[in-house]
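Tutorial, part two.
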Amino acid sequence: MAQSGQVAESVSRVTGRPVELVEITTYGDTSREQLAQIGGTGVFVTALRDALLKGEVDFAVHSLKDLPTTQPDDLVVAAVPVREDPRDVIVARDALKFTDLPSGARIGTGSPRRMAQLNAYARSHGLDIATVPIRGNVDTRIGFVRSGELDAVVLAAAGLNRIGRGDEVTDFLSVDTVLPAPGQGALAIECTAGNADLIAALAELDDPFTRIAVTAERSLLAALEAGCSAPVGALADLLADGQIVKEMRLRAVVGTTDGTRMVQLSTTGPVPETHDGAMALGRELAAEMLAQGAAGLMGERAQ
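Running the prediction step on this input gives:
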């Protein structure tokens, strides 16, 4: 709701028209099961897309990391606004940093991706942690720390920033330690493919660099045949020389949730100038990862 409100303000600004927020509850919002068990892919999206296709709403705002990689023909992502901070963060008791957590620290996260990378980092640095699966909204998750049930929880920086709670972060996890989910920190504004006027209006909010980066990340995810809940991290960085963006680096990781086996690769090249170029970059890195055994580390692959 917070991120939709921000997008609504932006749409009003570029169109000069008021925007009404319509609250839709999805299965992913209400289910307390782990995302990997309920399928992950699409659980936060299907109800919104149904409302679009029924004409109940004009456009929908998604967290891009929740969006399935297969795009329906009758819907279009009209805009991908400038990306927020893509990093994961720790909210820990006593304002502790990740590396200062005590031996045996219990860290809550509902993400197999986060579990895999945190456990791998701990293993390689001689840290003793236990990752604990949790679900719930921000209040619920941080509540586990405040009550003493957990020593820390892992959340997305973007989500906390958008609801004005970034000051509760006790540590930012470097992307060298934990790669974010493909598309993390970015939003997707989706509408029906036949609404040309609305597509043109929403396009005012599109950031080409963010779109090309998340396209490469999601192409990799699709080529790995992995769903939103798979233990896959990916981030496309734009590398600049002064003010001029010269290259794009795509990094990705796949690992078992216990962190014992990981495949981590990267590739750097010219910034793709087209959608197809970004798609190709993702597919190429995914092929290299599959050649190194990535498929065997993901559990159930998306159908």
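The radius of gyration is 19 Å. In part three we will examine how such features are distributed along the chain.
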